[in-house]
Amino acid sequence: MKLAEHHRNQREQWEIRQLDHDLLQQRHSERERERELKEQAEHRLLHADEQEDYDLQSACRAPIASLDCMEEFSAGSALSALGERGSDGVITKEQLLLSGLTHSAPGNPYQLSRQTSLTPGLRYRNLGKSGLRVSNIGLGTWPIFGPGVTEEQAEQIVSLAMDSGINVFDLSEAHSGTRAEVELGRILIRKGWKRSSFVVNTKIYWSTRSEERGLSRKHIIESVKASLGRLQLAYIDVVIVHKADPMCPMEEIVRAMHYVISQGWAMYWGTARWSPVEIMEAYTNSRQFNCITPIVEQAEYHMFCREKTELYIPELYNKIGVGLMAWSPITMGLAQGKEDGGVQLFSRYSFRSKYRSFSWTEDETSANKEGFTWVKEKVQPEETRKQSEKIRELNALSERLGCTLAQLSIAWCLKNESVQCLLLGATSTDQLYDNIQSLQLIPKLNTNMVAEIERILENKPTRPPMVSTLALR
């Protein structure tokens, strides 16, 4: 009896120990499962945060394509990646642009460049030392809304620019009258783009022949309010004062621009075709009277007009934060596709000009001019032998690079780091597409190529030597 009872007690104790062991194993397994589930949840949360950050960056970040990854792939694999083609089986330039295919010169095979976004070479940079981000290529609307371009064509050009990542639209009453503001305003309303996705520049222009004399406070405020009405926008991003008025006190100009920005009608203001001395005077007056300072100067810049842009604008940027929007990398005659023998790439007037522009005057921009015939009249005077020889050498160099002379000129301008935005015009989507492709030439302009261009031009600007007043005694 005692022995049987002893065995029974031992068996019960063993069962209890086994039950405790199983319970501990179950608890351990549950803890392990909980830990695994927690790690999986944390991993999913971290992945979701990273994906959200990536999506946010993809939505807000400028569509920047690295110039270091211009590695070429075979055109056949790229064409097969397109998938969709037109009804006739032909792939359009717009499809090639959006898919990453590029072409350099007419007749050359299409090539694919590796890229991380829509447009290879497109960059977004701060305008001046402000926080405003602008694409390194802007759309100048003077030729778009000029005679000879229909409203439908203008809308296609603006849409292609926006789809390509260009976010700057530059307007000027001096070039196309008030039509540009009216038409662009209609396009922006029809498209329904977010207001934060584009930058509109318009100019306060005064002419000695117009009724609005000078840059008075009255003229500045009335011009801005009229532009807002034509554009149908709540505000203008950058108001540009086109040409300085020597008869108006600078204090009145800067106070009027400060008032315009304080009222919310504009975000920033800048200048166009001002001399460095005038820009510095505006900055000094703004600081003296606690007014908002200008952030940008629009200046002419191309291979034969370099002194102001390369010598004085970088100094103004470093000292007072004034940035640069360059215009006229090619003549308007060539910009319209008129590459006949009578229209040269650069105007002779530009060779003699230091600060002024060759492109237009009040007489030339009057409404009674038909088409662009006045451009030919301006640039048709026979070039000197030396200047013509330079253009021929540049043309030969562009053929070696597999591009047009216009594309080489645009890429050369963008090579200058001081140019934060280069304004380009176009009268067709094909021409705008060709201009955009100039971005892919920038990596080809290495040190040797730039030296070759400088050898041809022989006009690199240099500062005059310092003159000591003591030496004059």
From TrEMBL:
It is found in: Cytoplasm. GO terms for molecular function: oxidoreductase activity; potassium channel regulator activity; transmembrane transporter binding; voltage-gated potassium channel activity. Transmembrane segments: none annotated. It comes from the Eukaryota. Keywords: Cytoplasm, Ion transport, NADP, Oxidoreductase, Potassium, Potassium transport, Transport. GO terms for biological process: regulation of potassium ion transmembrane transport. Residues 136-457 form the NADP-dependent oxidoreductase domain. One of its GO terms (cellular component) is cytoplasm. Pfam families: Aldo_ket_red (PF00248). InterPro entries: K_chnl_volt-dep_bsu_KCNAB, K_chnl_volt-dep_bsu_KCNAB-rel, NAD(P)_OxRdtase_dom_sf, NADP_OxRdtase_dom. The keyword DNA repair does not apply. Belongs to the shaker potassium channel beta subunit family. This is NADP-dependent oxidoreductase domain-containing protein.
